[in-house]
Design brief:
Layout: E1 7-11, E2 13-14, E3 17-18, H1 20-36, E4 40-46, H2 50-58, E5 63-68, H3 77-91, E6 95-99, H4 102-115, E7 119-123, E8 125-133, E9 136-148, E10 153-157, E11 165-169, E12 186-189, E13 220-224, H5 235-244, E14 247-250, H6 252-256, E15 277-281, H7 287-290, E16 298-303, H8 310-313, E17 316-319, H9 322-334
Parallel strand pairs: 1-4, 1-6, 4-5, 5-12, 6-11, 7-11, 13-14, 13-15, 15-16, 16-17
Antiparallel strand pairs: 2-3, 8-9, 9-10
The structure holds flavin-adenine dinucleotide.
The site of flavin-adenine dinucleotide has 29 residues, from α6, α7, β16 and α9.
Length: about 350
């Protein structure tokens, strides 16, 4: 089979609802495919997928590879890995992207190992570029970019010799593209037969715990860090969020210290957010935190340490004790301050 240069996105769906991360990846795939002069394609696995393929098309997929099978109605590792790897092997795309969700983290390594290729998890950026190694130049390969060694370096990882080049990306890291008024994708219906071993796991009941908060949707976020000091003092962060009509969030150090639950964590291992306003209170600005909020339109940082790294990315910085500054801000906003100009 002739190799092609297409950029594929695995479309994750639950109960026939496409997950945001897959649509975000279609936007990134468009950029990569333009560099490669190739097409964006979607790999859609599940049951009764006709309506979903229309949505995928409006978000930029020019080709959609579909395995529509009742056995794929709910996610199970073995049948999904078999179906994905068989279709990928048949069409040999250049790049395959997965969301770094629970499903993507389970599925992508399986598929990479079946296809005997590399995989970089949790990329924060993807680019196309050349790579030179031992007098050989690999042209237009995928730069898989992510923090490494505890965030001390940003590593660019490549898969020069094996195909497809594969990466996972967390929800919210790539920008959601705008849907287009087009529905002209070429559809490829694929059949995969499953053995008894593939279907050995039977799902009797599925229960999904809802997240306590949808940070991605919040337009104003007030995030507290370890500098808040203790769980009781976190009330200050809640009060400021209330006064601004915003949503509370936190750094990982604040979560680890028990100030608030993990669902509220922003950053590399939390949620990636892009609100209109992000207020970072008592947060130092470690790269793992800023990776999840640096795309915010306006950032206000409050920190007692003038050398705190958060000030490097903040649009407005207030140096001082949060216990004095935050109550004053709450009073001001309660007296009629507004965030509309921010
Ligand atoms: C693999 C990996 C993944 C990670 N993922 C994440 C992630 O998703 N999100 C995340 O946030 N972190 C993450 N981290 C942790 C990250 O490296 C930092 O440790 C963490 O972000 C620090 O949180 P913090 O800024 O609240 O705490 P600190 O770094 O302890 O900073 C506290 C800040 O509060 C200030 N302060 C103290 N008292 C006051 C006061 N009274 N008034 C004003 N300011 C005050 C201090 O000057 C300091 O700057 C990760 C780390 C690793 C290794």
């Amino acid at each position: 089979m002739k190799e092609n240069k297409d950029v594929w996105v695995f479309i994750e769906q639950h109960d026939n609802k496409i997950q945001d991360v897959s649509l975000e990846l279609l936007g990134k795939a468009r950029e990569l495919a333009t560099e490669l002069n190739s097409a964006v394609a979607a790999l859609l696995l599940g049951d009764k997928l006709t309506e979903l393929s229309k949505t995928v098309s409006t978000y930029g997929a020019e080709k959609i590879y579909i395995v529509d099978d009742a056995e794929l109605a709910l996610y199970r590792t073995l049948p999904y890995a078999k179906a994905a790897s068989m279709v990928i092997q048949k069409y040999t795309p250049e790049i395959v992207l997965f969301g770094a969700s629970y499903v993507g983290r389970d599925l992508a390594p399986r598929v990479a190992s079946i296809l005997k290729t590399g995989l970089t998890a949790d990329c924060t950026d993807l680019q196309i570029g050349d790579y030179q190694y031992r007098q050989k130049t690999y042209e237009k390969i995928l730069y898989q970019i992510r923090p490494a060694f505890g965030g001390n370096i940003i590593a660019t990882i490549v898969t020069p010799e094996h195909r497809p080049q594969m990466a996972t990306v967390r929800d919210g890291v790539m920008k959601m593209p705008l849907p287009q008024n087009s529905n002209h994708a070429a559809i490829f219906n694929e059949k995969v037969s499953f053995s008894k071993t593939d279907l050995a796991l039977e799902i009797l009941k599925q229960e999904i715990e809802k997240k306590k908060v949808d940070l991605k949707k919040a337009q104003i976020i007030v995030a507290g860090g370890y500098g808040v000091g203790n769980p009781a003092n976190f009330k200050l962060i809640e009060d400021l969020a209330d006064a601004l009509g915003g949503q509370v969030a936190a750094s990982r150090a604040a979560v680890d210290a028990g100030f608030i639950e993990k669902d509220f964590q922003v950053g590399q291992t939390g949620t990636t957010v892009r609100p209109r306003l992000y207020v970072a209170v008592g947060i130092s600005g470690a790269v793992q935190h800023t990776a999840g909020m640096q795309e915010s339109s306006k950032i206000i940082a409050i920190n007692s340490d003038p050398a705190a790294p958060i000030f490097k990315i903040a649009h407005y910085g207030i140096v001082g004790d949060l216990n004095e500054i935050v109550p004053k801000m709450i009073d001001l906003f309660k007296q009629g301050g507004s965030t509309t100009k921010l």
